[in-house]
Amino acid sequence: MKNINKESFKKEYSKRFLELTGKRIEDGTNEQKYYVLGSLIRGYVMNDWLNTQSRYKKNNKKEIYYFSMEFLIGRLLSDNLINLGIREVCQEALADLNIKLTELEELENDQGLGNGGLGRLAACFLDSMSSLSIAGHGCGIRYKYGFFNQKIIEGKQVEVPDNWLKQDNPWEVKKKDESEIIKFGGEVRLENVNNKLVAKHYNYEAVLAVPYDTPVVGYDNGVVNTLRLWSAETVNDEFNFEAFSKGDFSRAYEYKNSVESITSILYPDDSNYEGKILRLKQEYFFVSAGLQSIIKKYKNKNGEIRKLNEKIAIHINDTHPVLVIPELIRILIDEEGLSWEEAWDITNKTVAYTNHTILSEALEKWPVDMIKKLLPRIFLIIEEINERFCRELWSRYPGDWDKIAQMAIIADGYVKMAHLAIVGSHSVNGVAKLHTEILKKREMVDFYNYYPEKFNNKTNGINHRRWLLKINPNLRDLLIENIGEGFIKDPLRLIEFKDKLEDKLVLEELCIIKLDNKINLADYIYNTKNIKVDPRSIFDTQIKRIHGYKRQVLNCLRIMDLYNRILENPCMNINNRTFIFAGKAAPGYLLAKNVIELINVVADKINNDKRVNDKIKVVFMENYNVSLAEKIIPATDLSEQISMATKEASGTSNMKFMMNGALTIATLDGANIEIKENVGEDNIIIFGTKSEEVLEIYNNHGYYSYDLYNNDYRIKRVVDSLVDGTYSNDRERFRIIYDNLLRYNDEFFVLKDFNSYLKAQDKVDKLYSDRCNWQKKCGLNIASSGVFSSDRTIQEYFNEIWS
Ligand code: 26W
């Protein structure tokens, strides 16, 4: 990074402002000021970007490509300034020009090209790869509309399109000259060319894939990697020329629209797999484009195609990009002339796969007919992989048809994408220890027995530069003051903070920092929701996608129960609490939408009931996204990680809260278990049914939610209040939740864990009353959180999978 001083920055900024807007700064809008700043910073990055690429080429370094349907980046301005080490100087220079940097930062639209955990993980990984000087790039889709914006109207979620590109995006560079052609449909014939059978593709529809590159700036190291997102365009003309010349204009534009629709929208569903052809198109589109461009670049470097796997690693983020496997085989055989055996071997050594969920309803399987029609050549290759794999299985398990049918890639008219991913890659990993064990022992046990060497665990992590340095500057300064800057590049060194916690002054400081953050959030809540919350109350937060298994219902029922109890006993001696929720429901997920409505209705009732108002308040914050998480997390005292054991693969917000000094109330699920191992059981509050018990109950069918309801007065009272008019005159309003708990036997054990959860919450209340002790626990959480930096995770991927 070139050296920047305040005066030269001011000059450059003013000059750039005039060039880009045709105005003087004082006449420009804030949006223009943001855009000019972004484009100036991107300009600064350009040299490092080019140099990084030249270095990789010269050193012939292995390059990693992280393929993901989702990259949930959030904002980039301040992260880039921090990683470049120029935030302060820019802030001062801008102040001289009468511009507030923090105001510009707030203007940036979130780049919300992801649903939740999986997409955010991809974004954290990109930052860690650059910051660790690993040659690793992202490959994905440039959706025109990101994850929908959520509005709450009369308590209900309403979805509004996220037209994020309405604001010019200063970070991306369009590279039309590096476009690729993607072929859909048509027929494939095997033809004899020089005594060799060669696949020829006819009558296909060609679509142009145009790349947009965004620089991924490493922290203080001059490394700039690339996030390449693909956008669909028509190949030749803006429209169907034939239709156009015949005067059929609407059909001419229809064609253009249908092509562009491939990259128009992000599917907003991370709970239910839906076999939509557009989604399959998206998957093949970006996979094929990405691979073609990687191979072109590799061959340009004079790479011998047979050594591809020595210089390229491809990682697939869940099964969504799994078509890289047949697509790579296609390129190697049809375009490079390799034999099946060679192509298979190279592909297998190149590709690695991460599984992010065991929820069976989220597993991808595509109807055979759909793949055959849309991707005829790819289908032939999948068929061949399946046939060879089944033959192998036959020789290993002769006569065991059941097992072979279970493990086959194609069965019952479907292609099972997870099976294709496991068979076609050299590494399969889960995202937390428990999750990996469940994959090995249960969900994928047959595959584990067959390929034990492929399976491994890589516990998730978070980018501590964004999720600590950036979002909690006062905590960052306190840490630097006490343990120096070492933890920034080596987050495990956060543990050095542990010794400092004997110092009362440090605990005091921690307390002040948290209170400050809470005051900021309270202001924000007041400004956006017109609700007054007490910054001295416990900020008790559950923010994540709304989903049955994440059990926002459990949280809400205990609030309803507490409300009942305070009304019964107005002098009840408890710490005041502010309950904070945020999260989006998939548009078609009725239970989740009903939960949002319940939380909002409960919030309304409680917040307007003077009898309880100095004690509790409930806030549902609209439109959860990365930027909102950045505001809530540093201000939270208690982090709710209450999924039903076995269901949450890892969770990553749990790590963000820990790193910002919240205590966690949790079930022993996902990475919560490892949080407990690291911070010690006295510094986390654990409750609920354990994973082994869950599995045991599954085997014995030994759970009846009706029994609990009938035999426990508090449970009965709170469940009844869903339908007895307490919260709504419309007694059917929360019927879906009610039926889920009773009629459908409470799939996620909400009632089963209710009492243990209440006890755990009582324990939280007691702990909080001893403020000094509580602060110490918070400090221990911060000190123990280094292992959850994505730098650690990425180093493990690099050492154990990619090299
Ligand atoms: C096909 C529809 C669909 C789309 C996305 C199904 C499933 C998904 C994702 C796999 C869901 C997801 O985001 N999983 C989350 O991944 C995080 C990162 O590993 C984990 O921390 C979360 O526990 C897991 O739910």
TrEMBL record:
PANTHER family: GLYCOGEN PHOSPHORYLASE, GLYCOGEN PHOSPHORYLASE, LIVER FORM. Its cofactor is pyridoxal 5'-phosphate. Allosteric enzyme that catalyzes the rate-limiting step in glycogen catabolism, the phosphorolytic cleavage of glycogen to produce glucose-1-phosphate, and plays a central role in maintaining cellular and organismal glucose homeostasis. Phosphorylase is an important allosteric enzyme in carbohydrate metabolism. Enzymes from different sources differ in their regulatory mechanisms and in their natural substrates. However, all known phosphorylases share catalytic and structural properties. It comes from the Bacteria. GO terms for cellular component: cytoplasm. One of its GO terms (biological process) is glycogen catabolic process. GO terms for molecular function: glycogen phosphorylase activity; pyridoxal phosphate binding. Its EC number is 2.4.1.1. It catalyses: [(1->4)-alpha-D-glucosyl](n) + phosphate = [(1->4)-alpha-D-glucosyl](n-1) + alpha-D-glucose 1-phosphate. Coiled coil: none annotated. Keywords: Allosteric enzyme, Carbohydrate metabolism, Glycosyltransferase, Pyridoxal phosphate, Transferase. It is an enzyme of class 2 (transferase). NCBIfam families: P_ylase. InterPro entries: Glycg_phsphrylas, Glyco_trans_35, Pyridoxal_P_attach_site. Belongs to the glycogen phosphorylase family. This is Alpha-1,4 glucan phosphorylase. The modification N6-(pyridoxal phosphate)lysine is found at residue 656.
